[in-house]
Amino acid sequence: xxxxxxxxxxxxxxxxxxxxxxxxxxxxxxxxxxxxxxxxxxxxxxxxxxxxxxxxxxxxxxxxxxxxxxxxxxxxxxxxxxxxxxxxxxxxxxxxxxxxxxxxxxxxxxxxxxxxxxxxxxxxxxxxxxxxxxxxxxxxxxxxxxxxxxxxxxxxxxxxxxxxxxxxxxxxxxxxxxxxxxxxxxxxxxxxxxxxxxxxxxxxxxxxxxxx
Length: 212
Description:
Elements: E1 5-8, H1 19-27, H2 30-41, H3 47-56, H4 65-70, H5 79-88, E2 92-100, H6 101-111, E3 115-124, E4 127-133, H7 139-152, E5 160-164, H8 170-175, E6 178-182, H9 186-191, E7 194-196
Parallel strand pairs: 1-2, 1-5, 2-3, 5-6, 6-7
Antiparallel strand pairs: 3-4
Helix pairs in contact: 1-2, 2-3
């Protein structure tokens, strides 16, 4: 049984990057992907529609692209301190992402996270098909994941902390004991319990009473 559970978003929270954009740059589709993202942010597409449309532009990329883009991924300042301090205080720390397991897995393993979950890109004969496989990790799935991992950790929702930056994080933030907007976009700024505008995840620790 853990004392509390910290659940982080990944893109632009756990890491400084947006992985779909790194992959799109390798596919030559970055401008198209940015346009789809803009439409989604304006409410013209829902998350799953926009995700599938962006992933479709990656068709034909070799699976070696995961190793290539992983070199560009930068973990956000303060991540290691946050993880080490939470674990030392008998807490659990996890991430849930609308991004992709293929890039997230090695990061999560290196950081020693307790749980992680993301979308999976479909691959055939060593190439991306432009599709996805398995359940879609969207806003509702993020909230469901928080409930699942809190139950697995025997932590009441009142002892959970959700950290994110975008509209896709709002449902999980709504049910968490504490919702932290991290360098957050407009809808999150209005609804988060606390805002952190310095890109340093160790700033979450004082909110939990784990650092003065």
